[in-house]
Amino acid sequence: MKRELLKFLAFALFMLLLPLPFRGGYLVNVLIFVGINTMLAVALNLLLGYAGQISLGHAGFFGLGAYLSAILTTKYGWNPWAALPAGAAIVGCLAGLVGFPILKLKGHYLAMATLGLGIIIYIVFNETVDLTGGPSGLSGIPNLCLGSVCFDSDFKNYYLIWVFALLTVLFSLNLANSRVGRALRAIHDSEVAARVVGVNARILKVQIFALSAVICSLAGGLYAHTMTFIAPASFGFNFSVELLTMVVIGGLGSVYGPFLGAALLTLLPEILRGANDYDIVIYGALLVLMVMFMSGGLVRGIPDLYRKVLRLKGGVDHA
Amino acid sequence: MLEVSGISQVFGGVTALDRVSFPIRKGDITGVIGPNGAGKTTLFNIITGIYTQTAGKVALGGTDVSGLPPERLARLGMVRTFQNIELFGGMTVHENVMVGMHTKSSSGLLACALKMPWTIREERRIRDNCHKWMEFTGISDLAQVTAGNLPFGKGRLLEIARALAVEPQIILMDEPAAGLNNQETLALAQLIQKIRATGITVVLVEHDMELVMDICDKIVVLNLGKKLAEGTPREIQDNQEVIAAYLGEDE
Amino acid sequence: MQFDQIIQFSLSGLSTGAIYALIGIGFSIIYNATGIINFAQGEFVMVGGLLTLSCLELLHLPILAAVPCAVAASTLVGVLFERLAIRPLRNPTPINLVIITIGGSILMRGLAMLVWGKDTHGIASFSGDDPIVIAGATILPQHLWILGVTLLIISINKFYFYHTISGKAMRACAYNRRAASLVGIDVRRMVLFSFMISSAMGAAAGIIAAPLTMVAYDVGVMLGLKGFCAAIIGGMSSGIPTVIGGLLLGVLESLGAGLISSGYKDAIAFIILLLLLFLRPQGLFGKPESERV
């Protein structure tokens, strides 16, 4: 466990020192999105990678968190620091309620149900124009402030977001080697055997679903207050698929996998500047290829590939 | 210890079990045998909360536990193993046994995520305690092996170790000797007797007659969904009806 | 809320419902033969419509030739999909299958966008646009085409599955794959056939609906989901129950959009889907499943 903690501290240090030479600008802006996507991918990974429950609607929770915080602050004058947790609490309760019936479903049916849920939420964002501003979005969302210091620049926002993102990764690390983490993975591998040794699978699935939703909602609130403008288009089915891709590519059930997936998928479109239209094709191809050839994701695939190359270089000495 | 009364199970027109009743005495090793299709696994699944019976009761230590789900039964001291072994393939042997201690620990989701101090203490206790069970079943040297890579015989032992970690009062095993060779079956017989010696009641569904006659204190015979006979191994071996029911069976 | 309006909405709902039914049957056929829910089903519909467009505009084929051409090409896409994405899968767990079919559907959508662009295109109606009046409601000839072709396809389906050897073989696979392969049925070929039939049906649905609903690279997602909803209502049957499911969904959607609110039209299908999955996942017509351990 000590080694894991050291690895995390190294990672945290790296991420916190990264923007210093740049002091803002384009890269830092992109890295903010990497941070938000890391939070979201870790949240989805808890549900999908550990507990093995598919969700294609997670963008919905992200959006709910964003809109709840935005509406509470712009329309009702709440302090953003109060609106953020309030939104998260509401989303957590909602997810808990919906979780009970929805998690009785398995496999494809669960995928479809979460997909449907996500789309319903998206439609609500578009149609409740009085509250959300409809398709044109909601602007004028206030920044978060600590005393007299407001998070209004890319550089400051980077730190705001990444503190939360790093905490999220730390939580995931803590869970991985804990009683509950093992129980979740047990449910994934054999739900009946887990129940037989006393794991209450039904309740645990709902709990992790709700926790996952709360994290997404917090990410949404943070997103709203850093961007100061949100629109439904960011919270639709396409983004849910993007999140799924991040988690799958990074490596289901690993601690740093979601970060790798988030980083790759956020940076990729920026690297392929001008090839904007190809992003959908690339996501699809990546998903298919990953499942077929690298089912452990990058986290396992890259070391494996490295080992294979070493073996090839060393020549064939034994069968 | 365990009382099965009047259990009937009807699956859409087919009567799989018809008013089966028998007691299981505390500290016994009881075998449930019968030709294929007699309803043994169905009965097992009903007792262990995986199916709900159409009629009848199951009582554990005097309390009616009919219809309770497996996770509740585990907390009441009943655990089972599976014919086709259900391991947590993605985790190591040690981790598999640690899951067995789920009911003997209590750290919740948030506490684990925030790594509260009491969770660290509990984690250490869980980790250390499992060595006992791995030693008991003889798989200590495999502790770090991924469960999915285990050979079948070792997988069986792991399942038993995991079940023992629950510290149950009664353990039900569904065809534990299935897929084991003679040597492994002998070792299994010794293990079961070792388990009983710790005070745990054992119930087996089995096809391996040698094993059953060898270690069981009492035997219940099912045929075509009904209880055919019950008694000591000697009594069962001499029972004409049982012999008739098995005519043509290979074991 | 006049009676005329209700008839009007119901009739146009029936024709949309017919499309959902065809898509739903496509889902069921693949599911029954393979246990896979093909997330890319909606994309077959999209491909059918767009290919017809190309046949008409690029190759200048008359509509009667364009349709079979497009259906054939779509079937080819279905074959490619099965060969490239499904068959080589080494570890077909539900999660992997879901992800790979989603990946495949995204890939198809992306390629379609590259080939045909992001605009919506229209196709001329098969026999003109003069409205026909029935019982105080107006329908277009294309609606009749939709209902007619759907009926035809369903009859062909029924004939195939119940009166031909290969159709019966597919049904055998649906009931019990192991037993089917033990009596000599080539299960892998049945899987291929199921994809071919489903993609052909999806394409047909896309083609007959195209004059009314417009085709674009992204119509597949919603249509696929609604078709899935129809299949759920019908308990994953590849026959009448799913047809009823589709028609029911179409009519409810149309009535809801017309009488309550048109913005929430799409939400209606998904609310129905969720309610069904929560309360009665075997559909209105199916039997509850029990699990054997």
Descriptive key words:
heterotrimer; A: 319 residues; mainly alpha; two-stranded antiparallel sheet; 14 helices; 73% helix; 3% strand; globular; C: 293 residues; ABC transporter involved in vitamin B12 uptake, BtuC; 2 strands
Task: Explain what the structure shows.
- The complex is a heterotrimer of chains A (319), B (251) and C (293).
- Chain A has 14 helices and four strands.
- Chain A is mainly α and 319 residues long.
- Chain A has one domain.
- Chain A has a two-stranded antiparallel ribbon. A two-stranded antiparallel ribbon of chain A has the order 2-3.
- The mean pLDDT of chain A is 87.
- Chain B is an alpha/beta fold.
- Chain B is built from ten helices and ten strands.
- In chain B, α3 runs parallel beside α6 and α5 crosses α6.
- Chain B is globular and about 60 Å long.
- In chain C, a hairpin with a 2-residue loop joins β1 and β2.
- The longest helix of chain C is centred in the N-terminal third of the chain and has 32 residues.
- Classes of the chains: A mainly alpha (319), B alpha/beta (251), C mainly alpha (293).
- Chains A and C meet through α5, α11 and α13 of A and α4, α9 and α11 of C.
Order of adjacent strands in the largest pleated sheet of chain B = 6-7-8-3-9-10
Spell the H/E element sequence of chain B.
Answer: EEEHEEHEHHHHEHEHEEHH
Question: Helix count of chain A, per DSSP?
Answer: 14
Number of strands of chain B: 10
Intertermini distance of chain A: 36 Å
Number of helices of chain B: 10
Brief sketch in words of this structure:
The complex is a heterotrimer of chains A (319), B (251) and C (293). Chain A is mainly α and 319 residues long.
Layout of strands and helices, then pairs:
The complex is a heterotrimer of chains A (about 325), B (about 250) and C (about 290).
Chain A: H1 2-17, H2 26-50, H3 58-74, H4 80-102, H5 107-127, H6 129-132, E1 138-139, E2 145-146, E3 149-150, H7 154-176, H8 179-189, H9 191-196, H10 201-227, E4 229-230, H11 237-250, H12 257-271, H13 279-293, H14 297-313
Antiparallel strand pairs in A: 1-4, 2-3
Helix pairs in contact in A: 1-7, 2-7, 2-10, 2-11, 2-12, 3-4, 3-5, 3-10, 4-10, 7-10, 11-12, 11-13
Chain B: E1 2-11, E2 14-24, E3 29-33, H1 40-47, E4 55-60, E5 63-64, H2 70-75, E6 78-81, H3 93-100, H4 109-114, H5 117-137, H6 152-165, E7 170-174, H7 182-197, E8 201-205, H8 209-215, E9 218-223, E10 226-231, H9 233-238, H10 240-246
Parallel strand pairs in B: 3-8, 3-9, 6-7, 7-8
Antiparallel strand pairs in B: 1-2, 1-4, 4-5, 9-10
Helix pairs in contact in B: 3-5, 3-6, 5-6
Chain C: H1 3-34, H2 41-57, H3 63-86, H4 94-116, E1 132-134, E2 137-139, H5 141-163, H6 165-175, H7 177-182, H8 187-213, H9 220-233, H10 240-259, H11 265-279
Antiparallel strand pairs in C: 1-2
